[in-house]
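not sure who needs this but someone in the group chat was asking about NADH-quinone oxidoreductase subunit J from Acerihabitans arboris so here u go. i didnt clean anything up, its just raw.
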Amino acid sequence: MEVAFYLSGLVAILATLRVITHTHPVHALLYLIISLLAIACVFFSLGAYFAGALEIIVYAGAIMVLFVFVVMMLNLGAADARRERNWLVPSAWVGPGVLSLLLLAILIRAIYGVPDHGITGEVISAKAVGIALFGPYVLAVELASMLLLAGLVVAFHLGREDREGDVQPKESKVPDATRRKSEEQA
């Protein structure tokens, strides 16, 4: 199982790097699905079968379908691809990269500072997870669902914007004088 753990971890790291560096959004989402499946394999190799199954069902399944739907709805064109390529220049990502490395160092320091209590090996049932999610953590679950809904609404409105190079709708055939009268009456 140790070989499966390291191979799955390597696949997850490589696929995540492709998610970050890929300029085509649909291809980046496909690499993200591969990364999430590799993380599920890491869970399976550690013996956390329920967490691996949740990873596949929730993240690689439902949420990725939502992401693919939003990307297809936005219908990103060539202008967006050029703008995204401009974001990949080193001057655009060096600052966030340095800050991310600083956060990683803080996280590693915090992890090694926590005393090790060991893993008890206690089996947690799906019922216990459901009770915890919809018991004391119900507010967090509902807030997460509202955030996803708000993101979907924003993506829908962004997708409706007129883009450069797109065909504009034809002007109405109503004469200007008639249009002004109807606007004044309203």
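also The mean pLDDT is 76. if thats useful
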